Amino acid sequence: MTTGIAAIFVALGVAMLGWAGMQAVSAVSSRRWPTTHGTITNTNVHVGGNWRGRWYRAQIAFKYQVSGTEHIGVRAFFGDQVSWMSHYSAVQEVSRYSTGSTVEVFYDPADPSVAVLEPGVHRQLWIFGGIACVCIAVGVCAIRLGS
Predict the structure, then answer these.
(1) Which of 25, 40, 112, 127 could pair with 66 in a Cys bridge, judged by C-beta atoms 3.0 to 4.6 Å apart?
(2) φ, ψ (nearest 5 deg) of residue 18
(3) Which residues contact 55 (CB under 8 A, 6 or more apart)?
(4) Residues 108 and 102 sit within 8 Å (Cβ to Cβ)
(5) C-alpha angle with apex 63: 117 to 26, nearest 5 degrees?
(6) Enclosing H/E stretch for 38
(7) Closest C-alpha among 103, 120, 140 to residue 8
(8) Do 83 and 58 meet the contact criterion of CB atoms below 8 Å apart?
């Protein structure tokens, strides 16, 4: 591996770890956020993929009100933007939230437009952070071996 490619691994890993860290801070804070009732407006399983295969992600939308202002939420939990699931897991996640059902919404009191249905740090965020650390380690090792 050339030094340039190794440096890209390190930079990518640092960026990923920074994003995961910011998400984790919000996730930990979300456990103490106030709650309100909301309504599920849409659920579906998003399919992505490339020549290597397919991946799936549960997409859940909900509406809720804080101080008379209606908001739209699309985040079930912090880190769900990078959730790669099997088709079965994505369908299971979506089936937990039926359209029209009432849910408890945890919202940020400093910015009520930021909300989640499941507070706290979830497995997907730990996995993403772990992948970031592997990228950094591979890049650093390649740089050290190359010098």
Answers:
(1) 112
(2) -60, -45
(3) 47, 48, 49, 84, 85
(4) no
(5) 40
(6) strand 35-50
(7) 140
(8) yes
Contact yes or no for 75/62 (Cβ under 8 A): no
Task: Dump pLDDT digits (tens) for 127-141.
Answer: 878 888 888 888 888
The 10s digit of each residue's pLDDT in 13-71 is: 898 888 888 888 888 999 999 999 999 999 999 888 777 778 888 899 999 999 999 99
Domain ranges of the chain: 1-31+120-147, 34-119
Query: Alpha helices of the chain — where are they, by DSSP H?
Result: 3-30, 87-95, 123-146
* Alpha carbons within 13 A on the beta-carbon side of 22: 5
